Amino acid sequence: xxxxxxxxTKRFGNFTAVDHVDLSIREGEIFGLLGPNGAxxxxxxxxxxxxxxxxxxxxxxxxxxxxxxPDEVRKAIGLVAxxxxxxxxxxxxxxxxxxxxxxxxxxxxxxxxxxxLIEMVRLEGFKDFPIxxxxxxxxxxxxxxxxxxxxPRILFLDEPTAMxxxxxxxxxxxxxxxLRKGGRTIxxxxxxxxxxEELSDRVGxxxxxxxxxxxxxxxxxxxxxxxxxxxxxxxxxxxDLRDRAENRIPIRAVGRM
Length: 257
Ligand SMILES: Nc1ncnc2c1ncn2[C@@H]1O[C@H](COP(=O)(O)OP(=O)(O)OP(=O)(O)O)[C@@H](O)[C@H]1O
Ligand SMILES: [Mg+2]
What we know:
CATH topology: Rossmann fold
Order of helices and strands: EEEHEEHEHHHEHEHEEHH
Number of domains: 1
Mean pLDDT: 94
Strand content: 15-25%
Structural class: alpha/beta
CATH architecture: 3-Layer(aba) Sandwich
Low-confidence stretches: none
Bound molecules: adenosine-5'-triphosphate, magnesium ion
Largest sheet: 6 strands, mixed
Strand order of the largest sheet: 6-7-8-3-9-10
Number of helices: 9
Radius of gyration: 18 Å
Shape: globular
């Protein structure tokens, strides 16, 4: 198994964001994690990628325990987070060189990898421009390959196509399909049912921190007797709007670049 979660739980004060999640994700599959706003997807991903300590439970990722072997987990995984992790004043090459050095890469090896990744997302014509001037699609393509510098066996993508134009969406979805070749495991969160249906071998639907079902898109549709995944999703999570306002004061203004 690429990922195995055992009773994984995260509480913020007395609010439970992720509630005793047991989950097995197979090696080489694309696993779609679906859920309404605030369902706990990002919190679950943050725990599995060692960015946040669970309140209870644990998980194995790439065969390593997230609590006891976090460094090994970090070597095995790549994360494309919801927010961009790139420096706007640096160009594409400088950005990737910086992150590559954090992974202990250097010299020719790093330079070759950086060029390969920049070509993979067709940014070679723009690689010397500060990325603050890129379109959001270009930035997101670079943000995705930033997670691939160390060639991780397991890749987490948190809403990778949110706010992209149709051309960029097509490109990123095709890229995700390519990335699973060679047996890489991909865990993808998305709100776009059509995307989950197109890409996922299996999907898990999460709501109020609990996994409701895990199955193939086909399996879920036939079980519920509906023709598309959006109807499956609404059947399981309800049709109520998930409006919610929080009084948390932001530590610093976080805006997209
Ligand atoms: N650091 C935090 N402190 C307090 N509450 C938090 C914190 N992080 C997340 N939450 C709450 O936990 C719940 C789950 O949040 P999470 O970001 O995991 O949801 P999500 O499924 O990723 O939603 P979205 O689809 O909007 O990205 C939300 O109600 C959120 O407000
Ligand atoms: Mg989220």
